[in-house]
Amino acid sequence: xxxxxxxxxxxxxxxxxxxxxxxxxxxxxxxxxxxxxxxxxxxxxxxxxxxxxxxxxxxxxxxxxxxxxxxxxxxxxxxxxxxxxxxxxxxxxxxxxxxxxxxxxxxxxxxxxxxxxxxxxxxxxxxxxxxxxxxxxxxxxxxxxxxxxxxxxxxxxxxxxxxxxxxxxxxxxxxxxxxxxxxxxxxxxxxxxxxxxxxxxxxxxxxx
Length: 208
Known about the structure:
This protein is mainly α. The protein is 73% helix and 0% strand. It is elongated and about 80 Å long. Mean pLDDT is 86; it is low at 1-7 and 203-208.
């Protein structure tokens, strides 16, 4: 019979038994997890490379877990080429720039939902918010998500970059609208040049 320790319940006792005997790491990990000892469960999962158990545990994690623990889990999944999972954990840890770097390096599509998740908290430092919004916008530009890039550049306060993204989209109606609400000379000029080129190309097409 395994000795009872102060404050231990049956699951913890069983988990401790499997850990001490080394007879079944997977069971030890899952029992620690069920007993609420998430840190201990993760520690054993990393130490003994119990990938399946680690996936199960991390699927139930939230932002109440220590950021360092979440970051360690993310690194593990990154090393095992589970990039989307790594991004999810980094977002929980509020490591937004790091998550974005993985999206760029590993070609993870920035959807509107993911872009919102990566976006900074409302109470974040203004300079940090600006940098992060611009980084998201740049990533969207690289992936051809021009309307989303426009939104993020606008949130960063960089309307010139936002207009460049819109010009890439070729959405004439939104280009005209954006120029009107922005009320910046440089943006008016950009919109006018776009419209001039568009009119010329349409004119040539009509002649042909």
